[in-house]
Give the backbone structure.
Amino acid sequence: MEKKKIVILGAGESGAGAAVLAKAKGYDVFVSDSGAIKDKYKTIFSENKIAYEEKQHTMEKILQADEVIKSPGIPSKAPVMKKIYEKKIPVSGEIEFASRYTKSKMIGITGTNGKTTTTLLTHHILTKAGLKAGLAGNVGHSLAMMVAQDPRDYYVLELSSFQLDDMKTFKADIAILLNITPDHLDRYPSFENYIDSKFSITRNQTSADAFIYCEDDLVIAENLSQHNISAQPYPFSIKKKTIPGAYLDNNEIIINLKNHQNPTFTMSIHNLSLQGRHNIYNSMAAAVAANILNIRKEVIRDCLSDFRNAEHRLEHFATVHGVDYVNDSKATNVNSTWYALESYHRPVILILGGVDKGNDYSILKDLVCEKVKAIVCLGKDNKKIHKAFKDCVKMIVDVSSADEAVATASGLATKGDVILLSPACASFDLFENYEDRGRQFKRAVKAL
């Protein structure tokens, strides 16, 4: 019998993992990437005898596929995808494909902001509790690679809307929806489509599964009833009492998973390692998931108080001459920058800008007027930023490199200030990606 052909589009972390798993499961595998493939992935393909091409898409080969597994970074309207859809070849994502070959528990986490922090925190709790847990999706390793080579009992997955769009049969045993604010509107026809994409994390869930969500998020609250959700709901809120779920009472996080008054778990917000209102939400979500999994209270409490956040996410990098330098390069949308500013109660010099994804800066205006003493614009086209904040910030300066941004910001700063790289934009105009932007920022700070 002829082997089924699988074509994998995109040869990054997820593509390489999908290729290795498909090969292990007996498929005829071909990997195609329109860009250059990193050496580490070429080595993986060679070692596993997987055919690949780079810097091109050979349509003749691609259209012979029985199934295509595409990278989440490839939009559905890309020319290569249009031809695949025309030929009615089934298309999946790496997470969807990997989930067919494991019966392990899946904890899926999505939202416009806070996904990475909540995913890392949840994984930290599970690991410290002694559970064999993998970290995958948008952070950590490829799920498919782990399923193929290093299977775990639990997988904690950070899921972007693009990954959720490529899922049909995937089911989260625990689904977490943190918030929904306008983002990626360059990839979605409307905000409603993006909302539907986020809610699709509940697809295929049954009454035996859990859906943890933020009750205070207006978009989630308004759209809940329009989605047929079968899972047991566990809302969390800092504004009202939610049972079963999590809420705030006198600066104490109270988690109650039963329909009665006795709390399952309590902890003071002053003991959280992650401060700021958005991080109370992130901590609540992770703690509810851990409680559902019956992890011991002491372990959850320890993890919420000793967790260190990811690189590039409100990362306090250095203090030089009494000025704090904070790398929040992962803030690629306006809401992420709003959360960052909301965390500080000292004067901020804000490094802002990059590739604008249709940003509405008016959301930031009140916080910028209140907290920001100068803006350093790091991008090729900063007209929108100047227009948005010219009335409330005296000093707005344009720069074209991380070195220049840090030098300019430190020249404007005085002791006690915070220099915050929180760009609210994608990074592709001046940098490879947000990691490259964050690392260049830290190198420039080090050079001070």
